[in-house]
Each structure stands twice: as structure tokens, then as C-alpha cells.
Amino acid sequence: MSYQTDFIANLKYYRNLKGYSQAKLAELCNCQPGTIGCIECARQFPSFELLFKISDVLEINPADLFLRNASQCVSNTKEIMNNEFIQYVENFVKNHF
Are residues 45 and 39 in contact, defined by beta-carbon separation less than 8 angstroms? Predict the structure, then answer.
């Protein structure tokens, strides 16, 4: 995977996490409606200024957009919490209280 591919995957992930369409994110970033779509299709690269606007609107650190597999890490963490940690806590409470 390339940095651009990771960036695109993370942008889509965090945008969807906020419930924003591409057009809504573009509006909140004060850019043209098609800009986010072009970035997500790898036809356009964001400027530094737009990169910071996007991260501000999504309430994330700009570096989060470049993390390798950030969306997968969040999914894996939730899965571990649901499948392992909660089970552990339930068993602990059952055995100790």
C-alpha cells in the first residue's frame, strides 16, 4: 500500500465515521463540492491548507490521515473489546462477586 492509498482509505473512514458525505465535508472545508471526491479517487491531491481544514473538521490529527491501516486498527480494537475484553470482565465479575 502507498501513502496515497492509506490516506484515501483513512479519509473515507474518518469522513464516514462523522457521517459526512463528500459534499458535506467539502462544504465544511470551504472547498468545491467535487474536491473531496477527486481526492478520494486519487485524481487530486489536497494542499497543506486543505489537509489541515479536513483534519480540523474531522476532529483528528492531520497525521491520522497518513497512518497505515488506521481504519483497520480501530475495527480490530472494537472487535477485541467486544469478543475478548468484555468476556474477561464478565467472567471476572462472575467469579469474584
Answer: yes
Q: Quote the CA–CA distance of 38 and 35 in Å, as a whole number.
A: 5
Give the whole-angstrom CA distance, residue 56 versus residue 39: 17
How far, in Å, CA of 86 to CA of 97, rounded?
16
Show the 3-state SS of 28-54.
HCCCCCCHHHHHHCCCCCCCHHHHHHH
Q: Residue 70: what pLDDT?
A: 67
Question: Which residue stretches of the chain have pLDDT < 50?
Answer: none
Q: Locate the domains of the chain by residue range.
A: 3-96
pLDDT attached to residue 68: 74
What fold is seen in the domain 3-96? Answer: 434 Repressor (Amino-terminal Domain) (1.10.260)
| Residue 65 near residue 48 (C-beta atoms within 8 A) | no
Rounded to whole angstroms, the maximal C-alpha distance in the chain is 59
Residue 69 DSSP SS3: coil
